[in-house]
Amino acid sequence: MSEEIIIFVTAPNRDEAARIAEAIVSERLAACVNIINGIESIYRWEGEVTRDSESLLIIKTTEDLYAKLEGRVRELHTYTTPEVIAVKIDRGSEDYLRWIHECTRSGYDSTKEHEEEKRDTNKSE
User: Fold this and answer.
1) Mean pLDDT computed over 14-43
2) What is the pTM of this model?
3) N or C: where does the chain have the smaller number of CB atoms within 10 Å of the terminal CB?
């Protein structure tokens, strides 16, 4: 079993955060995403200190899915340099950690599901 991780991603607003969260959970790259709206971020960008209101995504997944998840976040995100930071989960409820693995099914290929959705959509038209 691979190790479980939490990934932090900031987004410029709730809509973008929700769009990213929906995609990565539906594609089984994450088991769960919490969205915290209205955080205040102060950071240096292009030589200036900047202050913005953002939304924070707290993503639960497995270490072996990190690269795929980071790539997908980059595809969906509007920032040129999105924050994608992972930390290992040191301890947690065995049931919850097992659930993360069940929901992500490591190695899951989301393109097959998208192809099936397209076929189903075309059949109903």
Assistant:
1) 97
2) 0.81
3) C
